[in-house]
Amino acid sequence: MELVVALGLIVFKVALLIAILLLLPLPLTWLERKIAGHIQQRMGPMRVGWHGLLQPVADGVKLLTKEDHIPAEADRFLFKLAPILALAPPFVVFAAVPFGESVSVLGTKITLYISNMNVALLFVFAVIGIEVYGVIFGGWAANSKYAVLGSLRTCAQMISYEIPMGFAVIGVVMLAQSMSLLDIVRAQANVWNIVYQPVGFFVFFVAGLAESQRIPFDLAEAEGDLGAGFHTEYSGIRFAFFMVSEYAVMLLTSVLAVILFFGGWNGVLVPLPPLLWFLLKVAFFVYVFIWFRFTFPRYRYDQLMAIGWKVLLPLSMANIIITGVAFL
Amino acid sequence: MSRVLDRTGTWIGWAFFADLTNALALTFGYMFSRSVTMQYPDKEKWLPYSRYRGHHFLKRDDEGEIKCVACELCARICPCDCIEVIPYEDEKGNRHPAKFEIDMARCLFCGLCEDACPADAVALGQQYEFSSFSSRDLVIGRDDLLGKPGKATTGGGVVAARLNTEQDVLVETSEPQGYNWWRNIRRT
C-alpha cells in the first residue's frame, strides 16, 4: 500500500510538472508580447479576449492546425527527431529541480520535488546540454543555408558558454559542499549565495542567456540575418516544440539562478510561504529575460566568442580560485 | 545611479556596465509610459485637422443653389484626370453642372481642384472612410458630392468611437472634440 501511494504520488507529480511546463509557454508568450509592446509604447495583443489574454491560445490552435511541411531535400529522420530532442531535455531536467521542501496534505508529507539526487547539478548540466543537439540537428536536417548557418553558430556558441557556465557554479558547490540542489538551497538559509558569489552569478547569468538562445545571444535564430535561423524550415507542431523548448529552457535558467544564487525558497524580510517566494523570484528572472530581449541588440558572432573565452572563462576561473582561497 | 557612475569615471562606469544599466532603465521607464496606439476601429477614431484633404464635397450658396459654375477648370487641372463635368444652362441662364463625377479610385488628393475653383464650389473635406469592394462604387456623382461632410472645424484629436458592422461597416462617434494624441508621445 505504501509503495502504491508513493508510486502514484510520483506519477501525479510528473504528470503535473509536464502539464505545467507544456502550458506555461501560453502565458509566457502573452507576457512577452505585452512587455514588448509596452516597452515600444504599443499595446501588444489586444483583440482576442480581455487585453489579448486568449491570443496565445489562438496562436496555439493556429500552429496545431497548420501544415507540417518537410522540405523535399531534408534529412527526414533527423528533421523529425530534432524537435523532440530539443523538447525532451528541459522536461527531464525539471525532475531533478526542487521547488520547495515539503508540504503536508491530508496528513501525508508531499515533497515538492520529484527526486533528490545527490548529483542533481551535474545531472542538470548534462541533460540540458542535449537540448542543443536538437537545435544543431534541426538546422542541419532542414538542408537550408539559413538553418545550417544557425546550427553552425550554435555549435560554436555552445562550447564557449557551457564551459564558463559549468565553472561558474563550482563556487556554489564549494560553498554548499554538495551537488544536491536541495542541499544548496538549505546552505543558503541565512545568507544567499549572491553575496559570496556575485561574479559567479554574473557569469552564470550571461551564460544562461546564451544557453536559452535569447537576445542578446540568440545567434542561432537571429531573425535579422538568418531568416529564423535553425527553425527556418519548421512549421506547425514541430515549430511549436521548439518554442516550448525555448521557454522551458528560459524558465530552467531562471529557476537555476534562483536556486543556486538567490536562496531558492528562502525568504527575506517578508514572511511569505516558501513556494510563493520561489515563484516570485523565478517570475522576476523571467521578466528580466524578457526585459533584456527588448533592450539590447544582438551581439555579433565573434563578440560572443570573445565574451565567452576572454571574459567569462577567466572570470569563472578566478572565481573558483578566490572561493577556494577564502574557503581555506 | 548609473548616470553618476558615468560621470565619475569612464572605467568605473565600464566595470559596472553603466551603459547597459542606462539602457535597461530607459526601457523600464518606457514600459510604464502611455501607449501611443490609437485603437482605431474598435474604440477610438482620429478626427482630421481642418486642413485635411479627404473626400471631395460640393458646396451650395446661400439660396441652396449649387455653387459650381461648370467651368471645368478642376477637370483641366486634375493631374490624374479623374473629374468629369458636363455643364447645362438653367432657366435664369446660369451655368451649372449636369454631371459632376469624381473617380475616387484615381484621385490622389492633391487638392488642386480646390485651388483652381473660381467659384469656391469644390473642396476636399474631412471624410476618410470610403473604402469599397468595387472600384465602380468609387465614382461619385454630383448629388452624392453635395451631401458629403465638409471641412473639419475642430479636429486633430482622438475621440471614442464604436465599430458598427450591422449594415455597412461604420465607425461611429458622437464626440465633437477629442484629446490631443500627441500628448502621449514620450520624447526622451
Descriptive report:
The complex is a heterodimer of chains A (328) and B (188). Chain A has 328 residues and is mainly α. Chain A has one domain (70-327). Helix content of chain A is 67%, strand content 2%. Chain A has a two-stranded antiparallel ribbon with strand order 1-2. The radius of gyration of chain A is 20 Å and the shape is globular. Helices cover 22% and strands 20% of the residues of chain B. The longest helix of chain B has 14 residues, at 18-31. Chain B starts with a helix and ends in a 16-residue tail after the last strand.
List the helices and strands and how they pair.
The complex is a heterodimer of chains A (328) and B (188).
Chain A: H1 2-23, H2 25-39, H3 55-65, H4 76-93, E1 102-105, E2 108-111, H5 120-141, H6 145-168, H7 170-176, H8 181-187, H9 193-196, H10 198-211, H11 223-226, H12 236-261, H13 274-293, H14 301-327
Antiparallel strand pairs in A: 1-2
Chain B: H1 2-8, H2 10-15, H3 18-31, E1 44-47, E2 56-58, H4 73-77, E3 83-89, E4 95-103, H5 112-116, E5 122-124, E6 139-140, H6 142-146, E7 157-160, E8 162-164, E9 170-172
Antiparallel strand pairs in B: 1-7, 2-5, 3-4, 4-6, 8-9
Helix pairs in contact in B: 1-3
Distance between the termini of chain A: 49 Å
Proportion of helical residues of chain B: 10-25%
Return Rg of chain A in Å.
20 Å
* Elements of chain B, N to C (H/E): HHHEEHEEHEEHEEE
Number of helices of chain B: 6
**How many helices of chain A does DSSP assign?**
14
